Amino acid sequence: xxxxxxxxxxxxxxxxxxxxxxxxxxxxxxxxxxxxxxxxxxxxxxxxxxxxxxxxxxxxxxxxx
Length: 65
Fold this sequence. Notes:
The protein is an alpha+beta fold.
């Protein structure tokens, strides 16, 4: 990766390393990446799962789905 910036490389790479590891949760048979109890990303090979309103990014994850 080539990065052209006047900002020192240490400042940029420092923010990348500080990110917490992602949290995953299974709901309704689908695997979701969750942040703060809300869906951040759906991980599925089923195209119909992406059309369900409960799996849209930012929607609170229902644990009993």
